[in-house]
Structure to design on (644 residues):
């Protein structure tokens, strides 16, 4: 056997460096194209943005971008963004865009988590039609986000089906008079909720799937023990399910928050940032400033860098749980703190028994 | 876990109510695509919960099979056949590029810990930034390289933004293949290269297909990148949908809905095919079902 292996000549193949001798070389070659692509999409754009951010460059300035120093502005762009005020909730400017993005993210992800968790609990036990229904709940997240924007644009028309349904229920059920004409998309005070609703519709299913896969892999033993000990559902939930699910909840929330923070497609098709600035989130703000309405590439670059800094600071904290989870199976994720938590459940049950 | 708190009937009602909420927007899209023009958004405020007269005119118009006849007195025919083809080419090309780059990187990371601990971290971080942040510099760069409004330009960016997903998905598939397989292949006289193609890659066929479909869905769904980096030679379907929306020449709800439905079909079908890997992909490989 040994002799046979040794007698086989090492085949030469292209490229010569991949002869199988040095694993390090092979590894380096394998990731080289990926690194090249990252340089292309990150490093070069970052360098250009940092440079342009100090200038008042516009594509209509009459000179090339590398001559942008002709319009040197120092920190003028940053200052303009940072000192921006604006009417609360509906105003223009950088900070209001940040504020609205945070609102969309917090409200959207909050509702998605609650609704997704409730659904996951409902789907935990098998029932006839469960797998078919799971597919139904899967569908929204497969919809192209731009199409989501268009669908909700139709739904939220003043004479559209949402108001139609509201009229139907309030008119016939509550005996209110007249038709309901909520101007969903043209009232600056409520237009943002249309965008949040569209996001909730599209992404609750992902929350649901993540949480469901966590729930089904919860260790049965502890839960059975708790049930036999007579723990109430609310106690089981609070002392067992929630702590064990915590790593998964954290990951789900982080990932959804990252994605919602970037929101653009559905928002743009729904309202194009309007009325006025009422639905201008960060991505929409940048697009309007640099392409759609004005072409202030210098200012846009400065805003982009501010966003980059903010996201990086958040990312430092947000990345760890995801990275750790990539190495673990879902069972390991939910099983991590079981010992400690079942003790606290026992204490809770005892405490209740004493009462 | 016990859901004793809820009677089966209560649970059924809860599921049905939430299910109706999640189905209705899709129901509206589908029915709208079969409605004739006078039912799209009637002036009187009447709402057609079901199409009064079913028609496939919206589809034939959106797919460029027929131009609108007198029944459709729209200003310009809504022909999305070219944008759909453009979308297919750009998304397909971007997927190929992402796979080409990502599969090797994933193997390097999974098998040789290439790039140390930092590379996976950087790749993850890449996904956290809103794409609009790099779009202006990219636009500048593309202007110089004459890549604005071309397939190649779009494919390049699609490949770059989706290859991280390939890395996460494929990394976990590669990790499941025992190291001994490639070692055995090398002992049998294969090079590292040969071992990868002949021994490892066939082991992850299924994962590779799922990854390809997943990345295709992502690229097919893109709107922002195409909106900025293309003008009129290459128009992807979502950008075309948007241009109809903002045209202001009256809402072409019917054909738009038909186009929307056509746009939704491939991701819906592919998504159901790769159900198992959907969550893994969308959570950057953190949740493995």
């Amino acid at each position: 056997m040994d002799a046979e292996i040794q007698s086989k000549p090492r085949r030469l193949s292209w490229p010569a460096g991949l002869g199988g001798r040095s694993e390090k070389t092979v590894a380096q070659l394998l990731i080289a194209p990926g690194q090249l692509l990252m340089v292309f999409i990150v490093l070069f754009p970052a360098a250009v943005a940092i440079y342009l951010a100090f200038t008042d460059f516009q594509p209509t300035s009459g000179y090339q971008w590398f001559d942008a120093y002709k319009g040197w502005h120092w920190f003028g762009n940053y200052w303009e963004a940072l000192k921006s005020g604006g009417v609360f909730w509906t105003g223009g400017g950088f900070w209001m865009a940040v504020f609205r993005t945070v609102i969309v993210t917090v409200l959207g992800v909050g509702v998605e988590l609650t609704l997704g968790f409730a659904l996951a609990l409902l789907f935990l036990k098998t029932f006839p039609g469960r797998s078919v229904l799971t597919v139904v709940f899967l569908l929204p997240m497969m919809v192209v986000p731009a199409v989501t924007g268009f669908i909700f644009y139709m739904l939220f028309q003043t004479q559209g089906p949402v108001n139609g349904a509201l009229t139907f229920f309030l008119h016939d059920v509550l005996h209110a008079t007249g038709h309901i004409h909520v101007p969903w998309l043209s009232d600056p005070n409520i237009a943002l909720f249309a965008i949040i609703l569209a996001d909730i519709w599209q992404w609750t299913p992902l929350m649901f799937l993540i949480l469901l896969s966590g729930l089904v892999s919860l260790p049965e033993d502890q839960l059975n023990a708790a049930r036999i000990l007579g723990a109430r559902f609310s106690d089981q939930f609070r002392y067992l399910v929630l702590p064990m699910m915590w790593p998964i909840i954290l990951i789900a929330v982080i990932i959804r928050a990252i994605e919602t923070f970037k929101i653009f497609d559905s928002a743009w098709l729904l309202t194009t940032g309007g009325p006025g600035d009422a639905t201008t989130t960060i991505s929409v703000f940048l697009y309007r400033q640099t392409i759609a309405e004005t072409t202030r590439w210098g200012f846009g670059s400065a805003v982009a860098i501010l966003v980059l800094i903010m996201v990086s600071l958040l990312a430092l904290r947000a990345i760890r749980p995801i990275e750790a989870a990539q190495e673990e199976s879902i069972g390991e994720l939910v099983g991590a703190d079981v010992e400690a938590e079942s003790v606290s459940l026992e204490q809770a049950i005892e405490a209740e028994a004493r009462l | 876990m016990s859901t004793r708190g809820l009677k089966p009937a209560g649970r059924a009602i809860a599921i049905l109510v939430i299910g109706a909420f999640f189905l209705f927007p899709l129901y509206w899209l589908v029915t709208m695509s079969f409605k004739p023009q006078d039912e799209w958004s009637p002036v009187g405020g009447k709402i057609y919960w079901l199409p009064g007269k079913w028609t496939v005119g919206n589809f034939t118009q959106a797919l460029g099979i027929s131009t609108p006849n007198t029944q459709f007195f729209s200003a310009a025919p809504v022909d999305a056949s070219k944008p759909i083809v453009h979308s297919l080419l750009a998304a397909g090309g971007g997927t190929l590029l992402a796979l080409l780059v990502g599969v090797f990187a994933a193997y390097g990371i999974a098998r040789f810990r290439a790039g140390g601990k930092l590379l996976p971290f950087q790749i993850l971080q890449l996904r956290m930034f809103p794409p609009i942040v790099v779009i202006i510099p990219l636009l500048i760069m593309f202007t110089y390289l004459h890549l604005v409004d071309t397939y190649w330009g779009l494919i390049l960016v699609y490949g770059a933004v989706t290859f991280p997903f390939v890395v996460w998905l494929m990394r976990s598939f590669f990790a499941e293949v025992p190291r001994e397989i490639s070692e055995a292949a090398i002992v049998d006289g294969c090079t590292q290269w040969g071992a990868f193609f002949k021994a490892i890659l066939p082991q992850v066929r299924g994962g590779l297909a799922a990854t390809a479909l997943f990345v295709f869905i992502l690229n097919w769904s893109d709107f922002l990148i195409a909106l900025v980096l293309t003008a009129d030679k290459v128009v992807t379907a979502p950008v075309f949908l948007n241009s109809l929306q903002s045209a202001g020449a009256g809402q072409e709800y019917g054909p738009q809905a038909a186009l929307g439905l056509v746009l939704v079909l491939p991701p819906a079908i592919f998504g159901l095919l790769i159900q198992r890997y959907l969550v893994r992909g969308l959570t950057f490989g953190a949740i493995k079902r």
Summary: Residues 1-20 of chain A have pLDDT under 50 and may be disordered. Chain A touches chain B through 123 residues (CB under 8 Å). The CA atoms of residues 245 and 334 of chain A lie 6 Å apart. Residues 23-53 of chain A form the longest helix (31 residues).
